[in-house]
Amino acid sequence: MNLQLINLIGASAIAISDSIQNAAEETTRNTASFPAALVIIDRYPTITVDLLGQYLQLSQSGAARLVERLVDQNLVERHQGNDRRFVHLRLTLAGKVMVEEIQQAKVEAVSNLLKPLTTQEQQLLLSLLSKMAGQYSSTEVVEEYICRFCDIDECPLLVCKQKIETWQEKG
Questions:
Q1: d(Cα 40, Cα 34) in Å, to the nearest integer?
Q2: Cβ-based neighbour number of residue 38 at 10 Å
Q3: Please, which residues bridge with residue 48 across strands?
Q4: For the whole model, what pTM was predicted?
Q5: pLDDT tens for each residue of the chain, 171 residues long
Q6: 59 in the Ramachandran plot: left (φ > 0), alpha (ψ -120 to 50) or beta?
């Protein structure tokens, strides 16, 4: 294996992740899991607090505190589903606007990193990253954590779109 490639991929992954996280935090004026929670709730409009916590790798109490902050800022509301044992989350209009702003900030942050590449090089990179993406994870929870800032509508991976469609069909 090429150790120079491994080092550059590792450094690039961290730089890209930091750029996305920083852009999301600046947009929401909140740190840590706050912006990612909004993106995930947008993706799964009937998600429970427990599942959100799993996807963000938070404890149950950490997820509950995070949801409380989101509700206090009028970005998320709680509602009862058919099964009264579970409280479901959905974005308010302000929350939906915030998700759009987070996604735009992500686009700008990553676009800045891609500037040195030609259009052809960007297409090659897309092809290579798509090929590698199948190796990232083997569990749904880890996949959701990795893809916490993804815009699924723009994802080139069919498996991601199928997963969202299945979730939406379950309602």
A1: 10
A2: 26
A3: 88
A4: 0.88
A5: 899 999 999 999 999 999 999 999 999 999 879 999 999 999 998 899 999 999 999 999 999 999 999 999 999 999 987 777 888 999 999 999 999 999 999 999 999 999 999 999 999 999 999 888 878 766 777 778 888 888 888 888 877 777 777 776 665
A6: beta
DSSP assignment string, the chain: --HHHHHHHHHHHHHHHHHHHHHHHHHHT--TTHHHHHHHHHHSTT-BHHHHHHHTT--HHHHHHHHHHHHHTTSEEEEE-SSTT-EEEEE-HHHHHHHHHHHHHHHHHHHHHHTTS-HHHHHHHHHHHHHHHTTS-SSHHHHHHHTTT--GGG---HHHHHHHHHHHHH-
Amino acid identity, residue 142? Answer: V
Cβ proximity of 89 and 64 under 8 Å? no
Cβ atoms within 10 Å, residue 118: 9
